[in-house]
Amino acid sequence: MGVPAVAADDAHTYVSFAAELADLVRPVVLSYFRTPLDVISKPDSSPVTIADRTVELRLRERIAERFPEHGIIGEEIGRRPGGAFTWIIDPIDGTKSFITGFPLFGTLIALTHEEQPFCGLIDIPFIAERWVGRPGRTLFNGGLARTSACESIAQARFYTTSPDMFTGREAEAFERVSRAARVRRFGGDCYIYGLLASGHCDIVLETGLQPHDYMALIPVVQGAGGCITDWAGRPLTLRSEGRVLAAATPRLHAEALALIRE
Questions:
Q1: 14-44: string of b/e by CB count within 10 Å (b at 16+)?
Q2: pLDDT averaged over every residue in the chain
C-alpha cells in the first residue's frame, strides 16, 4: 500500500519536527534513568512510570502547540482526534529495560497521513543513536542506513525482544523461524529494528505489539530497503493484530513467511 503524497516542503518540515521532538525529550528521559522510580502495572500487566507519562506529556504539548490540527495517539494518554495527520508516540519503548537499568530503550515517534505511516523515528537516548525514516530513505545519525543483502534464513542473524512473548502456535512459529537462522539473539525492543535498518541483523519477529510500538518502525525499515509486515505478509496498519515480521530483503522476508505458515 502506497503512502499518500505529502508535499516536499511539508515532508521536510515534519521530519525535522520529529527530530526536534526527540531532542526535546531525550534529556528528560535520561534524567529519570537509573533513579528510584515507582512502577505501576497497567491493566495488561505492562509497567509504567512517571518517566513514561512525563515524556509523553512533553511530546503532546509540543505537537499541539506546533500542529494543533493534527491528531495524537500516545501509549499512556490515548487518542486526540485530528485531521489527515496523526502523530503516534511511545515515550519509552522498552519500559522493562528502562526500569532494570538496561540502556537500549528508545523513544518512538511516527507521523501518519491518511492513516498510512509517512515518517518514523527511533531515538536511543542513552547511547545517542537515532534512525529517521521516510519514503525512500533512512538516516542513522545523519548518514544513510541500508539493510543487509541477506537472502537466506540459513545465513540470517535473528532477533526478538523476548521469547516469552510467544505462546501456543505463535511459539511454534517462533521456534521454526529462529532455529533456522544462523544466529539468534534476544533483547533490545525498538533498538533491534534500528540494527536491522543499518545492516547489523537480518530478521526480527515479534508479537503482541501495539500501534505505538510499530508504526515508527515501518518507515525506518522500509526507507533502509527492508520489508516489514504482519505475519500474513500484509501491510501493518493501526488495526493490525500486533504480529510483526521485519527482514532485510524481500527474499528473506518471503522465506520467513513460509516458515511461519507451516
A1: bbebbbebbeebbebbeebbeeebeeeeeee
A2: 94
The dihedral through the CA atoms of 151, 143, 209, 161 has a sign that is: positive
How far is the C-alpha of 253 from the C-alpha of 249, rounded, in Å?
A: 6
> Per-residue pLDDT tens for 213-260?
999 999 999 999 999 999 999 999 999 999 999 999 999 999 999 999
Instruction: Identify the pLDDT of residue 177.
Output: 98
pTM above 0.90, yes or no: yes
